[in-house]
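== Fold encoding ==
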Amino acid sequence: MSYQLEFRHLKYFMAVAEELNYRKAAEKLFISQPGLSRQISQMEEVLGVKLFERTKRKVSLTTAGEHLMHETLFLNNHLARVKKDLKRIDSGEQGEIKIGFIGSAMQNVVPDLMVKMNAQLPEVKVNLEEMSNKVQVEKLEKGELDFGFVRLSRVPEEFHMHPVLEDTFSIVLPKNHPMNAPQFKNIAQLADEHFILFSSEYSPLYYDMIMSICEDQGFTPTVSHKSVHAQTIFKLVERGLGVAIIPSALQYGFDLDVKFIELKNIPQRTTLSVIWKTENRNPAMWKAKELWFGEV
């Protein structure tokens, strides 16, 4: 008997892939466990591959199954977007783009791009969400984002990365700290301080750069606190719990009792880049890309 692969098969497959338990997946789908097993067997017959390894004790995805799960997630997200786009087109709107960004991108870069969007593509809806570099890459891979504004040295092969801003680093000190710009010579003068840094999970590249700035001056910083939010870091510095090193662009837009000294005479620079998936099929995304970055 021959079968055809249908969307319901993908729904059944995803339930088992997420639960890794046929009984729980069947309950989730409101069908019988034998019926679910038959549906998965049909899929495997149509595709000609084994999707699950199944023993009395556990269920696990095969390599082919893991690939199908990844592609099905992308397909589901794409279909959800198509449904939204159809409703917008029907109501006279012209699409949507989803943008992820790290905090420093919101100082100037992203707001400036939004001004351009509002002026020249007002019909395109824009959704913005702050998130870590890692989460942006994951969401771009799944088709849940169109653009990411990140500080990364490399991205997956299917992505395009375009630098948008090169920035210096600055030290953040409490306002009453005795060190001021005229007395500052190099970071080694702060070697005995506690440092408050962005978490390495938030941006491994940035974390490594901060370490290299200190190590170039002969010391390894004592890191007392880590955070993923600039506001939190500045608050801790304000309270005298340590000093921080940040991309210089982050110093604007905060009204706190801290001061900044730019590290001009060091080789390290931090680059903010925009990334997107080269096979993105969202026409609104490509309109925005052309407006913002031209032929890159």
